[in-house]
Amino acid sequence: MATTHYGSASAIVGETVHRLFHINCYSRTKEAPPSRLFLSHSFKVGDCSWRICLCRPVDDLSSSAGYISIFLGLDDDVAEPVKARAAFSLLDWAGNPVPDHTLWCTDLHEYSAAGVGYGFDNFIRREFLEESGHLVDDCFAIGCDVTVLRRRCMEDIVIVPPSNLHLHFGDLLESGVGADVTFQVAGETFSAHRCVLTARSPVFKAELLGKVCVRIDDMDPRAFEKLLHFVYTDSLPKMTKEEEFEMATHLLAAADWYEMHRLKLICAETLREYIDLNTVVNLVVLAERHGCYRLKKDCIDYLRYPPTLNVVMAFGGFEHVTQYSPALLRELWDVWFEDEPLQDDLALSL
């Protein structure tokens, strides 16, 4: 039975809010002392209250003289420090950011009390603003994106376990409880459930119509057992390397016959790892027979290397290709020798 776990955890939660700050009396900022702050309305981000602060630089004799300073500050105290950053942009009267004054972004700072602020002393040069056309009727606008990161404790989180449906269906196959159809495969008997098989394969659906026993003579019983395992669990059982190659060849053919496309792709991908001098000819024929394009292409690419091709031809490897599909042999020859006629010893077999 699946178990649902309960526990506690913490997570970093991020929230970003965009605010507009309209400064309606720019001339006052020129006349006010540096200690005078021009504040935006209070707004909430990350469960905290914030204000945008505009002022003259504290030291008008510094390199910031002649600039407008801007900061983000907490509007109230907080129970625990929060981390935040602000990105400021001067806006034109269409509300678009002004080039060279766009997204002046602060570092991520820790805010712990009201009145603490971080920003830029030299955000806008007054001379630029006054001559830019963005100051109209003693008013201009600033956009501010405020991002707050905060660690929150989340109690009683429900941790949903992963799906185990495949385990239940695997148990159903193994137990045979409720089985209503039997397969005779090369002398061995397998029990299964008609509803599962018909749901997974249109060929099984047609094959089982009105039948309680089906005889299969052209499949390895071990392969059929693994085919049933896949039908019920959508996965293949663990196999040794020696067994994996043999079963993949059998199962690819079975998957093609029963129109189980996912199993067919799994087998084809597995077989691509086993292409070598001993297997390449059989695999290219298998790929051609069952329409596995990538497996076929990999086999042909492997055979493009002249020494490899010579070894395969020397040991009569292409007799199997000739017997199965002369057209495939011609296709291979066209790939290797575009401008040369088919060799006599091969042509005689076509």
Strand and helix map with partners:
Elements: E1 5-23, H1 26-31, E2 38-39, E3 43-45, E4 48-55, E5 67-74, E6 82-91, E7 104-105, E8 109-111, E9 117-125, H2 126-132, E10 140-159, H3 165-175, E11 181-185, E12 188-192, H4 194-200, H5 202-207, E13 213-216, H6 221-233, H7 241-257, H8 261-272, H9 280-290, H10 293-303, H11 306-314, H12 319-324, H13 326-336, H14 344-347
Parallel strand pairs: 11-13
Antiparallel strand pairs: 1-10, 2-4, 3-4, 4-5, 5-9, 6-7, 6-8, 6-10, 11-12
How would you explain this protein's 3D organization?
Residues 1-10 and 344-350 have low confidence and may be disordered. This protein has helices at 26-31, 126-132, 165-175, 194-200, 202-207, 221-233, 241-257, 261-272, 280-290, 293-303, 306-314, 319-324, 326-336, 344-347; strands at residues 5-23, 38-39, 43-45, 48-55, 67-74, 82-91, 104-105, 109-111, 117-125, 140-159, 181-185, 188-192, 213-216. It is elongated, with a radius of gyration of 37 Å. The longest helix is centred in the last third of the chain and has 17 residues, at 241-257. It folds into 3 domains: 5-157, Apoptosis, Tumor Necrosis Factor Receptor Associated Protein 2, Chain A; 162-274, 2-Layer Sandwich (Potassium Channel Kv1.1, Chain A), CATH 3.30.710; 275-350, no CATH class. Helix 3 (165-175) packs across helix 6, helix 8 (261-272) runs parallel beside helix 10 (293-303) and helix 9 runs antiparallel to helix 10. With 350 residues, it is of the alpha+beta class. The strands form 3 sheets. Strands 1, 6, 7, 8 and 10 form a 5-stranded antiparallel β-sheet that branches. Strand 3 (43-45) and strand 4 (48-55) form a beta hairpin. It has 14 helices and 13 strands. Helices cover 37% and strands 28% of the residues.
